[in-house]
Amino acid sequence: MHFLSQDNFKCNSESPLSLCHHPVTAGAFTAHRHMKIFNIPSNSSTISGFLLLGFPCPREGQILLFVLFSAVYLLTLMGNGSIICAVRWDQRLHTPMYILLANFSFLEIWYVTSTVPNMLANFLSDTKVISFSGCFLQFYFFFSLGSTECFFLAVMAFDRYLAICWPLHYLSIMTGRLCTNLVINCWVFGFLWFLIPIIIISQMTFCGSRIIDHFLCDPGPLLALTCKKSRVIELVFSTLSPLPLIIPFLFIMGSYALVLKAVLKVPSASGRRKAFSTCGSHLAVVSLFYGSVLVMYGSPTSEHEVGMQKIVTLFYSVVTPLLNPVIYSLRNKDMKKAMQKFLGI
What is the pTM of this model? Predict the structure, then answer.
């Protein structure tokens, strides 16, 4: 999920191999082009799709990255799948908190699947071409799943707020029906949010190099490649992109402000530690996800913006889904026992 700035739309399409005006990127691309990392058609504007540059490096480096990210992808599937199975088969975990966690893990599996398989295919590809339909679908699913993740994090914060601030009324408020409705709403709103933008951008025509200096189809580079620039469309994307990040983040911060206020009123230190431990895992996940986003969009623009954008996007879209099962299983005793029971340890 990306905020769109005006810098994203400054692109030169005079040459088939032109990139956005970025000296570091252009220079690196030129150097790698002579190394024949992949074959770009002499007139790339004639290809049926886009060119995803990904992480340009020699062939040996591409194979190494393929092995590395294949291992990360498999571990992510195994970790999040284990949480789903542990919650499913352990009766003690049939509570709203763990049901939300299982759905969150299910979401993480699809979130990482929206980018990594195509990235792995690109590592072994000579052309790095992605079709128009494939690019638009990846854009829609990646950003829709990202929005859904933000909504899930907000719902999980709400669940912890009820458990700590309203412990006597928690079970009467957070019923199975409410939990189910919250889960459904997260998925529905997440996938409705970018429906109109993807319909608009899929109807546009693209000119010039059709080169996207990223490992996924990002709206900034896509809009930069359109034949006819539209300030209205750019404004729509600039407005819609940050809202699924900002609104849930403010809700999460408000929930934990109330939680902190309630915990500080607990007289005993052991009681405060116990209260904080119930939301420690969720806070760690929120910090990882939003921390990487704030590093990306809260820091001033630098000459390494394109490279930094790839690294940070890689962190919150690939690394965070890998770490989440570890965080929840290590910091939660019930989850740790259920995981050990499921894995037969």
Answer: 0.82
